[in-house]
Amino acid sequence: MKSKRHSMILKLVASENIETQEELAGLLKVQGFEVTQATVSRDIKELRLIKVLTGEGKYKYATVERAESDLQERFISLFSNCVISITSAGNIIVIKTMAASASAAAEAIDSLKWPEIAGCIAGDNTIFVAIRDGKSISDVIKKFQKMIK
């Protein structure tokens, strides 16, 4: 019964903007699950649900994976809007950004978790991206260029 309830909770948080444990408990009862607030609270912890900010400025429950995906999409959007140029020097990719944007753009790069990237360092308007294998430089640059188009 617990696994069915957990499955239903995941479906509900994926399709509804659920703001409170009480709201989730009510939706579960409509679906035929008899739950208490304490049960819902334990389920939320076991499923590792977190509260995320919606576009309407309210908070809702979401899975960690969904929250990370939303955040990555925002970082990619930010990256594409602030990058001015992309060049390379050896096994380093040098990315120029608008002033004060490099740190956020570097966070976007880190969130991609591309295996070719060893790491990156950001200043105010410049990011150095260390590539593990020099042969991958052109492929990574193409991926970055695709992101900014």
Pick out its properties.
6 strands; Gyrase A, domain 2; elongated; 149 residues; alpha+beta; 6 helices; 23% strand; Arc Repressor Mutant, subunit A; 2 domains
Q: What this model shows, in words?
A:
Helices cover 50% and strands 23% of the residues. It is of the alpha+beta class and 149 residues long. It has two domains: 2-68, Orthogonal Bundle (Arc Repressor Mutant, subunit A); 75-147, 2-Layer Sandwich (Gyrase A, domain 2). A four-stranded antiparallel sheet has the order 3-4-6-5. A two-stranded antiparallel ribbon has the order 1-2. A hairpin with a 5-residue loop joins strand 1 and strand 2. The mean pLDDT is 91.
Distance between the termini: 48 Å
| Spatial strand arrangement across the major sheet | 3-4-6-5
- What's the level 1 CATH class of the largest domain? Alpha Beta
The radius of gyration computed from the alpha-carbon positions, rounded to a whole number of angstroms, is 21 Å
Write the topology of this structure.
Layout: H1 2-15, H2 21-30, H3 37-46, E1 49-53, E2 59-63, H4 64-82, E3 83-89, E4 92-97, H5 102-112, E5 117-122, E6 126-131, H6 137-147
Antiparallel strand pairs: 1-2, 3-4, 4-6, 5-6
Summarize the structure.
The protein is of the alpha+beta class. The protein is 50% helix and 23% strand. The protein has a four-stranded antiparallel sheet. Strands 1-2 form a two-stranded antiparallel ribbon.
